[in-house]
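queue> holo job accepted (iron/sulfur cluster)
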Amino acid sequence: MLNEFAYCPRLFFLEWVQGEFEDSADTVLGRAVHRRVDRETGVLPLPPAAPGQEGTAGATVPETIHARSLLLSSARLGLIARIDLVEGEGTRVTPVDYKKGSVPDLPEGAWEPERVQLCVQGLILRETGYDCDGGVIYYAASRRRVPVAFEETLVARTLALLAEARRIATAGVIPPPLVDSPKCPRCSLVGICLPDEVNLLAAEGEAAVEVRRLYPARPDAAPLYVQAQGMTVGKDGDRLVVRQKGKVEQAVRLIDVSQVCVFGNVQVSAQAIAELTARGLPLCHFSYGGYFRGLTVGMGHKHVELRRRQFAVAADPDRSLHLARAFVVGKVKNARTLLRRNHDQAPRAALGEMARLARLARRAAAAETLLGLEGAAGRTYFAHFAGMLRPREGTAPVFDFEGRNRRPPLDPTNALLSFVYAILVKDLTVTCSAVGFDPLLGFLHRPRYGRPALALDLAEEFRPLVGDSVVLGLVNNGEVRPADFVRRGGAVALTPEGRRRVLAAYERRLDSLVTHPLFGYAVSYRRVLELQVRLLARHLLGEIPRYPPFTTR
Ligand code: SF4
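queue> job finished
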């Protein structure tokens, strides 16, 4: 804990106050190095006259001490530490801390956060009654032990950092991100902290901030969709195995999975569910027809403060309206851009009208006015939607579009739109939940039983960019065929094969790169979804003055 605080106070706050954690290559490697020392072996009896404790008067202290993975604490200092290894003789002991890296080229022999962490262990050992003048850091990559003396200056620095960490945790205000720091690219929480992005948006153009993309453009893991009826999903070691009538159809490594989506009659084993929840991977449930029914997650995010702010803003009509305007403006602008780029003959009057409605939405004085403007923009947009559809020869009448309809969709194009929107809302529900929000409480969409209102809010700006764009690609490239739809009464639905095609196109879209309009770097749409949810969190927590909707030109 103090190690993180010495590295960066914001990292400490994110991890220890807001409960954020994210693995990086460094943290995974660090765990591997610790595996051996994490096994508790050996004993460390209390020394004969431990101050403030009953001690082991009369007990024999072993001459040589060699104890691994010891959990010790000091009530007086308010410190607790797991010490990798304690070596010593009689009452004189040395804590040994294992690090995965190489010995740094520094006069002190080790980085300050590492020396401070070791000093904490020494202080606790002293409090326990042992003599402890120094410790050792073992660098696994160099296979070298570096001694660290617990001099007065190091002890004073450690205690000062401890007091400051306590003060910041109690105050409950997150420290600002470091500025252009070389520490950030190595920080495991960089994709959550968003240091350069937050610094840029907090400055509101008043400071020249160059934004580095410090996290991968695309996440490595992807969703696993299982939709054939009767399939089972089980766990085999570190893999998920999908079977049909006992025959293995697919096996994927858990580290390559970001979520599991099951449609209708698909069974997931108790072992697989336990593993998914332990890893924080959501299990998304859909009806056979693609209706998003719900989510199985672990204990949920620990970020109570974010939910508290979310609830407070949702209860405040003015602040809710402020956010609702941003969602609607983003949606209308993106719909207009899609129309301008994809329509056969970009309808000037409609584009002008949508620009006007976006301007009005930006300063709408009431939620009802805003909803009216959104409705008007939607009608204008969908009145020209058919002009963006260029179905392959022979399929044209199938994809005729005369307007938006749903519940149930009455034609194939509306069936495609409804299904893609449902998947988009599912992804934003998962992301809202992962970031620490309650997905059911929104600012534009008012609460209704079971409705993921916040996910629906955030989906607005992505409906044209992701949802509609996927549908246009599917129809115009001939990726979906008339045979991919079934009619039941007046309603039209996708067949399982049709859904498979849509899901493949949707995932391709999420993996495609886009230049971020504010930050200037290339990033996948999948990352952009997460980025927007995190920026909303940063806004609600008071770090950035406004939520910036994602819009393309
Ligand atoms: S990314 Fe940088 S500013 Fe953010 S927590 Fe990590 S080190 Fe601190």
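queue> The radius of gyration is 28 Å.
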